[in-house]
Amino acid sequence: MTIPRRTIALVASLTIGGLLVSGTPGSASARTADERCLGHGPIAASALGLGATAPGCSLVGRVVTDGHVFVVVPPPGMSVAGEGVGRHGESRSLQVTNTGTTVRAVSGTAARHGAAAGDRVARAAGACRDRTFHLEGHKWRSSLRFRINLSKMPSRYSRKTVIKQIRVANGNMRTGRNTCGKPRLKTPASHYLGRTSAAPNINPGSTGVGCGKANSKNVVGFGNLPGGLLGWTCYWWFSSGRMGAADIMIDTSRALVTRLPASCSNKWDFEGIVTHEWGHAYGMGHTGSGHPSLTMQHTAQPCSPYARTLGIGDWLGMRKMYGAR
Fold it and tell me: pTM for the full model?
């Protein structure tokens, strides 16, 4: 589902404490229905922080926002979340769960701190010592089948190289590629089904980014992400913990390169960023600040391909979900 630009603008202007209610005052019964259904417009995530029950009213298809991230309420028995990796600032995420009787939203923020270029040796040494990981509570029970949309790919890229690196990045996370001597993981196989005209189910705006209506497609594509984001993933899963779908959007800025230059400054490794986003698709969450050697830290380190290989924490998290050979 594509959310109209007007809706995106309205969502971006919301504050966490406010609700946007459209329409004009009507009868008492109409106002009661509005209150029960939390109005007609986007719903503030804070209004669903403890869960909202709406007898006689479905919130499915409604937009929920924390002012920076917005998602569409999925059907009963499903959850949706969006999060990504960036260069600076803070990392925000938003999760909405629809149990069938209540709809609950959880909004998260983690400060991001960059590392100096001189930390590269320390990162390489720490990758096999930092055992930190966070799981989102969902995983693939069968193979992940995905397509790639290149309609918004910057012309400076080679299509062949981009497709190859997206596929290799999937393998990096799926198999648990690492330099710590750990074995291959048992993650279900993935299948690249070719290119598609379908866009990722992700809606970037000038100040926020959102996840559209629940779907069963898995698409990787490009878009102009806001706020220094380099990649963003929206994913949907069922109450059983079984993954339903995951879409990935890669930023179109010149900060991302498929080959790091010899004289590097403020450039980020394309394959490493996509490896991170595949981590979200497979069930991995952010580690939080202070783990710069791990692929799943929410700040990507510049001028290094470190994220292509999993740190021990990344590997342990994937092994807990999928096992190792």
Answer: 0.85
